[in-house]
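The records we work with from here on pair a chain with its fold. These numbers are not coordinates but entries in a learned vocabulary of local backbone shapes. To see the layout at work, look at the sequence and tokens printed below.
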Amino acid sequence: MDKDSKLIQLRKEKIQELKENGVSLYPNDFKPSCNISQLKDILEQSPEKIGENGEHFHISGRMMAVNNMGKSSFIRFKDGSDHIQAYIQKNKVGASTYDMFKKLDIGDFIGISGPAFTTRTGELTLLAIEFRLLSKAVRPLPEKFHGIKDPEIRYRQRYLDLIMNEQTRQIFIKRSRIIAYMRAFFEKNGFMEVETPMMQPLAGGAEATPFKTWHNALGMELFLRIAPELYLKRLVVGGFEKVFEINRNFRNEGVSARHNPEFTMVEFYQAYADYTHLMDFTENLFESLAVEITGSAVIEYQGDKIDLKKGWKRITMVDSLIQIGGIDPSIINDTSALLKFAEENNIKITKKDRLGKIITKLFDVLVEPKLIQPTFITGYPVEVSPLSRKNESDPELTDRFELFIAGREIANGFSEINDPEDQHQRFLMQVRQKDEGNTEAHIMDADYVEALEYGMPPTAGEGIGIDRLVMLLTDSASIREVILFPHMKKNN
């Protein structure tokens, strides 16, 4: 029998003994008067309530450490808000209660009623006048109080990670604050929050491989959405001129430090706006969000100081390849020369790819990792932008941007196509690419084209990856650090 099995067996023996002594192991009648954080605030504002003759409080939480001293003990316990020390004496709670307490373990939930006092070292402490067991833990917590280091345990058993690692708790508290702030920011700017289908008859709105499912009653194949874009734009057609959705998307792709097959985005659309308007909007959002969450618009991410104050660099993809990627401007529009350049630099590009796709692939390898400070890349080729409006002066390019920070894409936005014939032709181009072997190319969405035929006002839209944004604002190296339950292979 291994060590953990022995500890579990010992705990089960204690549980049996407690049952035989009439102790309720999982009662549900203890009502805390406040949480630990609120208790500390109350006593800070009203120090006259501190002392053995002061106000009695009812506080509950999980035991994390015990220092036994015969007929008295110090306990450290915590709830979802904070931690505190408690002092329990045999002569205060009674012999039977104290004997019961001595049979408890680290990890058990307890309830304590009594006043607060400060020890000789100045530590705020709760004096137990009444003591209750609220929930008996069968399994022992990890031994090291300072935390769990093994990522396999941390990700697979996130509940243990949250119990033992305060840093992990803070990441997800910040994540919640980030999403709440973004929701309030959009509403303050006149956007309406909406919900669109997560199961769709056609997988559209992005180039990605979808997950498939089957609806028995309808007798039809459905896809988990890869993006809500085409539904949100249908709402703009319907007259909702400023909409946003904080949504879950699903893409049947690999798992890495930057990718999880299930991820969170905010996607939003605004009528009578263009992509330049959205770049300004994004700068304002990110700067104010950074100040709200970190206290400063200048943050540190993985050793780099990143300045999120508005006024970010804006550069076209072609210019970035020349200025940052080091490509000779004389070959930037020469397909054969670019393919030769790619081969010489071990950049894998299939010869079927059109010029726009070659340029985009070269950008991904040569430029994207170098974009540490916030940078908007504009001038995306039509071939890789099937839903973006063509640029008036150069119809081979689109009015689109992607935002890069810390060497990765954070957001993607563009002026939308509202010409139904143009959109129909773009879908046809995607269908041809799918026939050529691009499994992630768009399918023809005739219903969306029909919606455009009823008229959509000039519109711009954008998607922001919330998981990557949380990584940035919490200095997390991997997307698994900011997703509560990341996808992982099954344990054998």
